[in-house]
Amino acid sequence: MTPPQPFNDTPLTLPEDGMLAEGYGRQIYNHPFDPSVVIKIAKLRPASDRALRLHSALGFGPRAFGPLWNSQVEARELLRAAGRVGRVARCCAQFRGLVSTNKGVGAMFDAVRAADGSLAPTALTHAQTHGHDPAMEAAIDAFWAEVKDNWIVLSDRALRNQVVVTTQNGYRLVAVDGIGERTFIPIKSMSRRLHAKACDRYHAKMQAAYRKAARGDA
């Protein structure tokens, strides 16, 4: 049995070549010791829209959470979904906690990887690389069935926010970004019926976006 290790509060050092991607307001790094985790380092997002300013005024926006605002929205949605349905949703990368780094506090999430250990490609990259594949359309159908069944709210359904895992029977999609409702009144979190109707709309739009990207039009 491995003896218990003493608590170590030394911040992790994230090397520059460990950065995997950079999006709006966040940089994604490999965890230097745990390949099952990625670390999201965020910069403070300005409260540039009315809904975000209202969130801040009520104590659960950037004023309260600073640069971790986006990550707390995602973590809160994952917690809320698990509490509502009594299980952890496989269709989303799960929140793994917080960590101090040389670049600030980071939020840790599942690293969804391909068989060779690299990060799984986004659905957009997969469509542009492989072209149209009926198995991907089936994966999109299954993905939205899981999202609806687990009552997960996705604020950004773009193909770049879902990654593709190859399975024995085809593909599986996992949401890695754009999780959680960012509107001032979270109606899809309040009503399962409205959430289901929204999922049907977003499902159709994602299928259309996939076909467009697979044709090379995206």
What's the short story on this structure?
The protein has about 220 residues and is an alpha+beta fold. It is built from seven helices and seven strands, in the order βββαααββααββαα.
List keywords for this structure.
218 residues, alpha+beta, Transferase(Phosphotransferase), domain 1, 5-stranded antiparallel β-sheet, 7 helices, 7 strands, PhoP_reg_network_YrbL, PhoP regulatory network protein YrbL
Strand line-up of the largest beta sheet: 1-2-3-5-4
Mass-distribution shape: globular
Average pLDDT reading: 85
Largest sheet: 5 strands, antiparallel
Describe it for me?
It comes from Pseudooctadecabacter jejudonensis. This is PhoP regulatory network protein YrbL. The chain is of the alpha+beta class. The chain has a single domain (16-215), classed as Transferase(Phosphotransferase), domain 1. Helices cover 37% and strands 19% of the residues. The protein contains seven helices and seven strands. The strands form two sheets. Strands 1-2-3-5-4 form a five-stranded antiparallel β-sheet, with helices on one face. The chain has a two-stranded antiparallel sheet with strand order 6-7. Helix 4 packs parallel to helix 7 (192-215) and helix 5 packs antiparallel against helix 7 (192-215). It is globular and about 50 Å long. The relative contact order is 0.14.
